[in-house]
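Sequence in, structure out.
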Amino acid sequence: MTEHKKLVIGVFGFGVVGEGLYRVLQQTASLNATIKKVCIKNPGKKRNAPAELFTTEKSELLNDAEINVIVEVIDDANAAFDIVSTAIKNGMATVSASKKMIAEHLPELLSLQQQFDVPFLYEASACASIPVIRNLEEYYDNDLLQSISGIVNGSTNFILTKIFEEGITFSKALLAAQQLGFAESNPDLDVLGIDAVNKLAILLVHSYGIVSLPGDLLYSGIKNIELSDAKVAAEKGCQVKLVAKAVKLKNGKVTAFLLPHFVKPSSQLYTVRNEYNGVVIESSFSDEQFFYGKGAGSLPTASAVLSDISALSYGYRYEYKKLRYHTPSELTNDLYLKVYISFDALKNIPKEEFEWIEEFYNGQERSYLIGVIHFNKLVKDNWWKQEGISLIALPDSIIENIDIRKLKKRSLELAGIVG
């Protein structure tokens, strides 16, 4: 029987996740792991742990020869990178939950792991309690992955659920999320899609071997979603969900983006409500698999950190198989998207940018159109992110170059434009 390696842990941060980890470790007798020291920023704050556990000096953790695991769960991305990179350079196995830090420093973190031969695990950074990264690394460790799509931000999903089920406005739904602690007092990271696109960048490395910074990906959040959009979605038998997506195209290249989507009842993501996350992974031969669970919160996130700590006791590390043992996939913007766009004023919509428009509704207060536009035109211009405009991807929104002419001819025929 393989014996657990004894782990002596130094923790940075004792907020929601840090305290959650402290609690779950106390209830995990089978794991040969103890927290020796916790580094905090505010020593005057009352905490549910012995006072001697805490310090404000990071060197007490990073320079302690007895500590062999550093766990970083703070909310300052710059400080988090300094901690993690120092720990790796000092030969310490490291665990992090900081998706912003990881996504923004992926190239450096990949290089550091190779250079110093130290494991760095971060399951909690993607979908908290859902083991997506480990499954992409181990189960989908080949080049047969067709797509990954998911609801990866609990705050925005809670807000959209409220809009749909209670028929309230975005602002009222956001206030409810803040009152319940699902959204921060400054919710921009969530509602603008920044948190979710950070997670998409992380998942891209493990699904397709693509190293891309979040700012290089096409994304938007739900800030401009109107109650009228929810009503149109319901008329079409759909719900609106913020979906992160990476898809292998017929030419072997990969497209990746984060946009609100009309989601049909036939999709597993249709059933994901409130603060929950859901991820659908499709492979060539195993069809679809669905992962569902809480994507935020003290104990769900702490359970993912605990899982990484437990994996370290067996010497586990990410191998980045898609990046290092296969030819990494190439990211492309050369495709088309079918989108729904609602707006206050038609003059703000560049109709000439569309390949064709399938549907147009001119309402008294708000109008909408459904049309097909080249992906690159959305990348290069932000008109669709302006206030008063809402862009939502249609189900099966991706149209590849090899399909565009045939579909365009059929669409124009149906519209009565050509014979």
